[in-house]
Specification:
The protein is of the alpha/beta class. It is 37% helix and 26% strand. The strands form three sheets. A six-stranded mixed beta sheet has the order 10-9-8-13-11-12, with helices on both faces.
């Protein structure tokens, strides 16, 4: 059996990992001022950040079932005998639905997984799935690895303003913070596939310090070695500083990737956002040396 792994562009996996593990990416779309763009192909996160600052209307859309069908057909033609397709939370996008529609008529069995998360919290699970598949595992074994990685994973993030999330309809339970949005800096998380409020503080520096501390606590309580990524939109200096801090604060001195958010997620969270994705490695004790991020 040859199992291939498919994900979407909101995993924000670095190109090197995609190439190394032959991971297929189906891109979402971004519409800026009425013009349709394909994430990762003809629009950058910087362009989206600039549009948002200029108050240009920015929206996003899922891939069509046809695009998924063509992807699954091509992988089958290349020799895949089964496919595991892992995507961003169905609470945030219709991407999972589109994948499932295509999977129903695919030429090989396709298992579609709703990650209930986004970014590298999903991306690390995708890499683990690709490694398992490359080792000759069958679909049930690959799915088990995916679930083991997704289960304890999480994303914490700080946004400069809730306005972009409100416009995009992604704010969910965090809408309770809107009344005081001008005077607080919200710390949000993705839990159960939705964006939820965690805490609110008065300054951005306190928000960043708090999410760093929360990550350290999460890792210590979990007792497993972890993969970490710091996401950002137009906040590279802040992201680099957070990554440097985490390398010394988190037990085990993990490798920490710095990965800019792409156009799709960036359109919803806005410039200045920073996020930390945490992905524990089940079965690997926290004090065990692991040295490199999964797949690097």
């Amino acid at each position: 059996m040859t199992v291939r792994i498919v994900t979407d562009s909101t995993a924000y996996l670095p190109g090197e990992l995609l190439r190394t593990h032959a991971i297929e990416v189906v891109p979402l779309h971004v519409v800026v001022g009425g013009g349709d763009h394909v994430e990762g192909h003809d629009i950058t996160a910087a362009q989206v950040a600039a549009a948002l600052r200029d108050y240009t209307i920015v929206t996003t859309s899922r891939p069509t079932p046809t695009v998924f069908a063509e992807t699954y057909q091509r992988l089958a033609d290349e020799g895949a005998t089964a496919i595991v397709s892992i995507h961003l939370s169905s609470q945030m996008s219709g991407t999972v639905e589109a994948a499932r529609l295509a999977a129903a008529d695919a030429p090989v069995p396709v298992e579609v997984v709703d990650s209930e998360t986004i970014g590298m919290a999903m991306g690390f699970a995708v890499v683990a799935a690709a490694e398992e598949a490359a080792a000759g595992a069958d679909v049930p074994a690959v799915l088990e690895v995916v679930r083991e990685r997704l289960g304890p994973s999480g994303v914490l993030f700080y946004v400069d303003t809730l306005e972009h999330l409100r416009r995009g309809g992604r704010i969910g339970a965090a809408s309770a913070l809107l009344g005081s949005a001008l005077s607080i800096k919200p710390i949000l998380a993705v839990r159960g596939g939705r964006i939820v409020p965690v805490e609110k503080v008065r300054t951005s520096s306190r928000a960043v310090a708090r999410i760093e501390a929360m990550v350290v606590d999460h890792v210590a309580q979990g007792g497993h070695a972890v993969d970490l990524a710091v996401h950002h939109l137009d906040a590279a200096a802040r992201a680099d500083e957070i990554a440097s801090q985490l390398r010394t604060m988190v037990p085990g001195s993990p490798t920490v990737l710095v990965v800019e958010l792409g156009a799709v997620v960036g359109a919803h969270v806005g410039p200045g956002t920073v996020a930390i994705a945490v992905s524990p490695r089940p079965g690997e004790p926290l004090d065990a040396p692991h040295g490199e991020v999964a797949g690097s």
